[in-house]
Amino acid sequence: MSQPIRVLVAKPGLDGHDRGAKVIARALRDAGMEVIYTGLRQTPEMIVSAALQEDVQVIGLSILSGAHNAIVPRVIELLREKDMADVKVIVGGIIPDEDAAALKQQGVAEVFQPGASLEGIVGFIRSAVGRE
Amino acid sequence: MKTAERQFTTISGVPIEPVYGPEALDGFHLGEPGEFPYTRGIHRDMYRGRLWTMRQFSGFATPEETNHRYHYLLEQGQTGLSVAFDLPTLMGYDADHAMSEGEVGKCGASVSSLEDMEILFRGIPLDDVTVSMTINSPAAVLWAMYLAVAEQQGVDWSRLSGTLQNDILKEYIAQKEYIFPPAPSMRLVTDTIEFGARHTPRFNPISISGYHIREAGSTAVQELAFTLRDGMEYVHWAQERGLKIDEFAPRLSFFFNAHSDFFEEIAKYRAARKIWAEAMRDRYGAENERRLKLRFHAQTAGCSLTWQQPYNNVVRTALEALSAVLGGAQSLHTNSLDEAFALPGEHAVTLALRTQQVLAYESGVTAAPDPLGGSYFLEKLTEQSEGAAKEYIRQIDEMGGMLPAIERGFPQSEIAGASYRYQREVESGERVIVGVNRFQSEEQPIELLQIDESAALSQAQKLKALRARRDNRRVQSALDGLRRAAEGTANTMPYLLDAVRAYATLGEICDALRDVFGTYQETTHL
After folding, report:
1. Taking CB atoms and an 8 Å cut-off, how many pairs form between chains A and B?
2. Total structural domains in chain A?
3. Which of B93, B341, B451 is the closest to A94 by Cβ?
């Protein structure tokens, strides 16, 4: 059997609303993935270093505070600097359509807005790492 | 789905019988509105005497822009203010701190110094308008700023009326906006309760909040139980400080969620009043039964709003608001239809306020106190909510109180479990969310409030000018005095007042407290 998919679920920024991050972490785990949850108030530097250490294929960022345009591009940039551009970054939270489009242009694999289904997120991750 | 297979339960999972009859009221004594234990409400005449306060939680970008919104809301007939601060303010960072990048003014108004607080309330007479402030970890600092603004307006503190949220326990449990470890945080809360009992007899120094517990995914019963047990923890700390229960208990206020399960919510408010009044008398020895009334603010459930088909949110909010009114709320916030996306725009917030005005002036539900009292179903639900909440309270007592329960992650895991179960039910279609997992359709986008980085820039410029202009020696000596007070056991409020009057910034003051108290990192409970 192949190794399980490894995912880092991270909560950047100052916001403490972690309901979504925790539900996603549990759902991915129930789907057979190995999930590392960073906890709260992680800087982009901390997130990328955790991703490197844990050797994950996917980083999931949960952002509800509106700070995504400051935080997400910085994570992408750090991944490139560290030769980790193959790590897929997905973002979940309150991300307006136009911001979602801009983030995807900058290298985010997918943005999941409110109402996205757990099944859809699991399916996307499997296909993104070629494990359908 | 066929009726035979269908399970009927409340959102919290309480089974609902096919029909309720007189047996639901066996051995039951309900009491009157305005009488102990206040199940039916805290006033004999309820809304006949006075309507609830219509208080829309509001704040965004700079204090200048938020002040403008406050004047607008008051002109539209809103009867109290409720300040939303941004995340840097909630976390005790100045707007120009590195951690504040991208967050200034996004989730509320940015307030970094007394100067910002002066601007926030410019032209608003604080002896006339009641003000609620949603601030927790640095609540004592922001309250000191508020008291200093009142001084400048020439308003005696004894005439100030309003509420400080200041409920740190639910931050560790649910919302996670904490700075310091639990014990020094509880000391700061107790400092404000003590200071309030001496100086601000009409101001609520704390609003013990279930709202955020519910938004984090708890059931109604968990919200009820954890909130009331938090309240008991504050009472315990204040008594340990030497305060008499009858001198501070009447100023403890509460804040509950108005979620979408209509009858379960009404039962929750009624059970809350009963459990609290009985606990204050029997457990904490309050003597004056008339002062054991649980007064609460309610806000409709942000987490029930959907991104899909946003106009449905108007309907959800109206129903949720109705449950709060039928449950006897003292003040109410109705969410705006666009709040699944952003902070509300002016049009959306006006519609939300109009929703309350329609309930208050057109629907007729204000004419009789506790209009659903005696309903077989509702009384049974009230009794079940009370019983289930008391069982949680007993478990937490056995753990040695709320602080040890938080340390071992008990309420956090209970909530995480409930929120995961709920999401699974939505996923499977067992719980229907109109427009999300059934009755989907394409929607036109709605107009949204945009907050750009100009607020951050303007705040940073003001801070720079302030630091150059103020008497920095006075700032240093006030901060040194605060540090010494924090190291000892003195009430910190007078020292915080000295510091804010000297225009020490929020970040500087919180750094002084961080030096003494340290900071808190939680162990995550998935």
Report:
1. 94
2. 1
3. B341
Q: Which residues of B touch A115 (CB under 8 A)?
A: 306-308, 436
pLDDT tens series, chain A, 132 aa: 579 999 999 999 999 999 999 999 999 999 999 999 999 999 999 999 999 999 999 999 999 988 999 999 999 999 999 999 999 999 999 999 999 999 999 999 999 999 899 999 999 999 999 876
| pLDDT confidence of residue B525 | 66
Is B313 within 8 Å of B280 (Cβ atoms)? Answer: no
The B residues from 399 to 418 touching A (CB cutoff 8 Å) are 416
Closest-CA residue in chain A for B452? A66
Question: What phi and psi, each to the nearest 5 degrees, are found at residue B182?
Answer: -55, -45
- What mean pLDDT is predicted for residues B421-448? 90
Report the distance separating Cα B41 and Cα B60, nearest Å.
Answer: 35
* pLDDT for B1 beyond 70: no
Per residue, the 3-state secondary structure of B34-96, as one string, reads CCCCCCCCCCCCHHHCCCCEEEEEECCECHHHHHHHHHHHHHCCCCEEEEEECHHHHCCCCCC
pLDDT, mean of residues B87-109: 95
SS3 B16: coil
CA nearest B177 in A: which residue? Answer: A16
Confidence class for position B5, pLDDT limits 50, 70, 90: low
Q: Minimal Cα–Cα distance from B417 to chain A, Å?
A: 9
Average pLDDT of the segment spanning B263-281: 97
> What does the mean pLDDT of chain B come to?
95
Is B221 inside a domain boundary? yes
Query: In chain B, what residues touch A71 (CB-CB under 8 Å)?
Result: 102
Residue B2 confidence (pLDDT): 45
The mean pLDDT value for B442-464 works out to 89
pLDDT surpasses 70 at B42:
yes
Check A70 against B451: CB less than 8 A apart: no
Task: Kindly report the nearest CA distance between residue B267 and chain A, in angstroms.
Answer: 25
Q: What is the pLDDT of residue B270?
A: 98
- Considering only A1-10, A23-32, B194-203, B212-221, which range has the smallest mean pLDDT? A1-10
B59 and B163, same structural domain?
Answer: yes
Residue B315 sits in the same domain as residue B377: yes
Q: Which two tokens stand for residue B248?
A: 């501070």
The candidate with the shortest Cα–Cα distance to A95, out of A120, A115, A117, A74, is A115
Nearest CB among B176, B303, B526 relative to A16 is that of B176
CB contact (8 A) between residue A115 and residue B306? yes
Quote the minimal CA–CA distance from A51 to chain B in Å: 18
Say whether A66 and B215 touch across the interface (CB within 8 A).
Answer: no
Answer yes or no: do B217 and A23 touch at CB < 8 A: yes
Q: Look at the alpha carbons of B443, B449, B454, B459 in this order and tell me if their dihedral is positive or negative.
A: negative
Do B63 and B197 lie in one domain? The reply is yes
Find residues 158-187 of chain B whose CB sits inside 8 Å of chain A: 171, 175-178
Minimum-distance CB partner of B106 among A25, A67, A118:
A67
Q: B393, B428, B463 — which closes off a domain?
A: B428
Q: What is the CATH number of the domain that holds B326?
A: 3.20.20.240
B113: CB partners within 8 A, 6+ apart: B94, B145, B463, B466, B500, B503, B504, B505, B506
Which residue(s) pair with B256 in the sheet? Answer: B298
Residues B8 and B105 in one domain: yes
Residue ranges of the alpha helices (H) in B283-327?
312-326
Residue A70 lies in a domain: yes
ipTM, 2 dp: 0.92
| CATH number of domain containing A119 | 3.40.50.280
